[in-house]
Amino acid sequence: MPCFKSQRSKLPSLPQAFGRWLKLLRLLCLLCLFWLAVGLGLGFGFAQTQTPPPEGVTLSTERIDDTLRLSAQLQFELSPAVQDALYKGIAVIFVVETDLLRERWYWTDKKVASTQRWIRLAYQPLTRQWRVNRAADDTSAPGLRLSLNQNFDTLLDAMAAVQRLYRWRIADVADLEPGTPHLVAFRFRLDVTQLPRPLQIGTLGQSDWTVSISSTQPIKPETLAPSPGQSADLQ
Fold first, then answer.
1. Which residues of 144-153 are buried (b: 16+ CB within 10 A; e: fewer)?
2. What is the tens place of the pLDDT at every residue in 74-89?
3. For residues 114 and 111, what is the distance between their CA atoms, to the nearest angstrom?
């Protein structure tokens, strides 16, 4: 009489089946964690590449004849909202302010000289050129006696001109007290009050229209030493 083996003997027992499913579940969890880590890594790297460079300024002062001159190299970027307004023909105006301070150990620093200038950046849709207008002196108001007009083919070139200030007169040497430490307080900002009225209202509380850079640095004593043969090559 033939002997038939039971088919049940080939089927795994309940503990064995549970163990296999547990191993499979662990493997799936490990794969999920791996892809999650990869996704977070890519997202973090992308976020880092999209972070704009920090705003800042490098200042230097020098004496030319009987005046104290300031040069500055700014670093900042315009937001997409500001660039969009520029391409629509809306000019933006930047304000540059400086204060010459005399240090006093017994009281707050004394302001001995101040200057304020304007830089106007505009796009000409008809010519497809960018124009930068700089105030000729610290008494010029926006739209009045603007000189040193420069035209550029790209926004990048125009911004390079805006971000570079070269030998601007900020005080007379006679304003400084010999033997006393002095400081230069520098401020640069986008003046939203010069925008069209409807746009001013729309920019309230929006960080896209905030460009503000400030720095304070001491004037080195050797800066005030006269330099024969030096001329004020101004921009």
1. eebeeeeebe
2. 999 999 999 999 999 9
3. 8
Structure tokens at 32: 């999920």
Q: Where are the alpha helices (DSSP H) in the chain?
A: 14-50, 80-87, 155-162, 197-202
Residue 168, pLDDT > 80, answer yes
Amino acid at 159: M
Residue 127 pLDDT more than 80? yes
Order across the sheet with 164-172: list the strands: 56-64, 67-75, 164-172
Between 165 and 142, whose confidence is greater?
A: 165
Q: Are the CB atoms for 103 and 134 separated by under 8 Å?
A: no
User: Residue 164 forms beta bridges with which residues?
Assistant: 73
Residue 184: burial class (beta carbons within 10 Å; 0-12, 13-18, 19+): buried
Residue 126 or residue 147, greater confidence: 126
Q: Residue 131 corresponds to which amino acid?
A: R
Note the Cα 101 to chain centre separation in Å: 25
